[in-house]
Amino acid sequence: MTTNSIPWPGAGVAEPSVVDRLHGWVTTVDHKRLGILYIVYALTFLIIGGIEATIIRIQLIRPHADFVSPEVFNRMFTMHGTTMIFFMVMPILFGFGNYLIPLMIGARDMAFPRLNAFSFWLTAFGGLLLYFSLVGANGLYGAGNAPDVGWFAYAPLTSRAFSVGHSTDFWTLSIFVSGFGSIGVAINFIATILCMRCPGMTLAKMPLLGWMYLVTAGLVVLAVSPLSAAQIMLIIDRYLGGHFFDTQAGGSAVMWMHFFWVFGHPEVYILVLPAFGFASEIIPVFSRKPIFGYSVMVAATVAIGFISMSVWAHHMFTVGMGRALNTLFVFTTMAIAVPTGIKIFNWLGTMWGGKIEFKTPMLFCTGFIFQFLLAGLTGIMLGSAPFNWQLSNSYFVVAHFHYVIVGAIVFCIFAAIYYWYPKISGRMYNERLGQLHFWLFFIGFHLTFDFMHFVGLLGMPRRIYTYEPGRGWETLNLIVTIGVFFQAAAIIVMLVNLVWSYSRGEKAGADPWDAWTLEWSTSSPPPVYNFAAIPAVRSRRPLWDLKHPDNPDWRYEE
Amino acid sequence: MNVSTPNSTAAFIAPDWKLPSRGRVGMFGLIAAESAIFTIFVVAYLFYIGKSISGPSPKDVLSVPVFYTVCLLSSSLTIHLAVAALQKGRRRAFSAWWLATIALGVTFLFGTASEWHRLIYQEGLTISTNLFGTTYYSLVGLHAFHVVVGLTCLSLVMAFALLGWVTHEHVYRVDVLSLYWHFVDSVWVVVFTVVYVIGR
């Protein structure tokens, strides 16, 4: 079964039995199928994590609400954060990388197809472990208990004394297991990008998405490993009576913070760089111009990769690290704004003077640029230690990082879903529903996260399960919660669109966007071998060269 | 439009299109990830030196394992000679050097085991005794775990070699595996320095 391509609906191919098809998907080592598995898996967790967010927001819709108990509230924000970071955004980015990178660099598969499948199933198993805690965390008693220590699980809250039962163990193990899945897929990305490019595609001619994934994969290797190491320490503390984070025996709770954020901050860039990659592929196509400043874009990406390894302690300004360290981390944090700003100028430079078509992917990318700029500005505010002392642990912080993760990353993910949906499914999505999705989500996003800034400035701390009336937070919280329903509606519109278009959409053809990168040179969906003959390229836009033999790009590059 | 692959430009491509080997790149990626894991444990070890609030302390119980260190480090040389022998097609020499590598690795592991046995049964130091115990057993144990993984892989190749399956065409794979073993050896240099030189 693994040798067959994805059946094209209605193509008249003899349908294999359901068991055979399922078996084919479970045992597949094809990068395209694994990519789809990652994406479907991540969208499932998007729904689960979204439901958890909705529960959180319903509880906070008015003062003294009792929709859920404080204990359940703690579990909800822990599960929401863990799910969205580790089992939604990371897998969906790995999924797109899996699907697209071999196609974009003219290869027939990833460098290590079996490692690829192994990594996916590790990630999938990690997600199942996390949710198995609902039934398994109290062991034989059978009464479930999800983790409730927050997504960064500070010590000593995770010690046995304060975290009885097995909920924290499930959290640790799920992060540990999926972490190795992430490292596996990252090594695969690095080897694929460095060793599998088609003839002529030097690193300087590689699509920007390839560069972004190369740097992301490097960051995964260097940042997720420390997290795995910290989880080993936590398990040693909980099960073998170790003292790493046990302050009673001379251990240090601050060590956990350092180890977690050594992972935690590069993680933001692990998530955002692939999103940059999507934007850098989509914006040029819908502006009908090549990307502005390719080499500067690459340099900025590499610079972000390096600087992001040195900013982690800006999550810890209120811990009391001392003046010298605080100052150092303020400066590194400010420094990272420079390459990031360069990127924004490059995207604007690409759009400037272009023949912009506001199809759904482009709408999402435009929203992304705008929101990412604002997220960067609040990031600079929070990156300055004195301001941070005032607003650390408030809803302002929650608003800031949701602006990055939802406003920038998820917007780009939506753009990518619509942009590559014709390639993956062979069908066009419904443009009208796509636009509806954008506007609903855009409105919902701004209702929720804009007003979260204000309620944070008014002093509302994060992670409280309810609040007193009369502090000026009521209306703002109500607006924030209303925004959630817009976002939920938008997600439903998207899912309906994707499912409906899969069988009813127009046939897309190989190249519906008149695009320039190699994945559009093969059929939609691509055959299992991707390319009948391995392509050879001479410029960054091989399909442009092919379509315009009189005026090819390679005449002007270098 | 149904685009064929853009072959038309193939004529312009230099025929010597060569990229790094994916096996080596993949192994270097794994080594980078493992190094990051070790770095965290080393940082924890260094940070917690002298912070234990009860004994025993490293000065009282640790002795420098010179012999076993020499064993492990010289196994890097033997595995190099093994790969070089296979490169020249000398399969018997390969097997001999490969076996020597395994023997040296096992000797090292025996050294770690006997040290742990002494520490646990004579000195009463376990992973939960104090911070020193926690950091010592986890760092040295993490390294020992890597030695075990390495030895398992080496033994598998040894079994293949005894069956006569390892030939000159496998030199590339054997070479990639030897990278891992070199990594295990070089990490020991760091662990040794941290535990027996700085920490004692």
Please explain how this structure is put together:
The complex is a heterodimer of chains A (558) and B (200). Chain A has 558 residues and is an all-alpha fold. Chain A has a single domain (28-555), classed as Up-down Bundle (Cytochrome C Oxidase, Chain A). Chain A has 15 helices and no strands. In chain A, helix 2 runs antiparallel to helix 3 and helix 2 packs parallel to helix 4 (113-136). The radius of gyration of chain A is 23 Å and the shape is globular. The two termini of chain A are 45 Å apart. The model of chain A has no long low-confidence stretch (mean pLDDT 93). Chain B is an all-alpha fold. Chain B has one domain: Four Helix Bundle (Hemerythrin (Met), subunit A). Chain B is 72% helix and 0% strand. Chain B contains six helices and no strands. In chain B, helix 3 (66-87) runs antiparallel to helix 6 (171-198) and helix 5 packs antiparallel against helix 6 (171-198). The longest helix of chain B has 33 residues, at 91-123. Chain B is elongated and about 60 Å long. The termini of chain B are far apart. At the A-B interface, helix 5, helix 6, helix 7 and helix 15 of A face helix 1 and helix 5 of B.
Feature tags:
heterodimer, A: 558 residues, mainly alpha, Cytochrome C Oxidase, Chain A, B: 200 residues, Four Helix Bundle (Hemerythrin (Met), subunit A), disordered N terminus
Could you give a short description of this structure?
The complex is a heterodimer of chains A (558) and B (200). Chain A has 558 residues and is mostly helical. Chain A contains 15 helices and no strands.
Could you outline the blueprint of secondary structure elements for this entry?
The complex is a heterodimer of chains A (558) and B (200).
Chain A: H1 18-26, H2 31-59, H3 70-104, H4 113-136, H5 167-195, H6 208-239, H7 253-287, H8 294-307, H9 323-351, H10 360-383, H11 385-391, H12 395-425, H13 431-457, H14 474-504, H15 542-547
Chain B: H1 22-47, H2 58-61, H3 66-87, H4 91-123, H5 131-162, H6 171-198
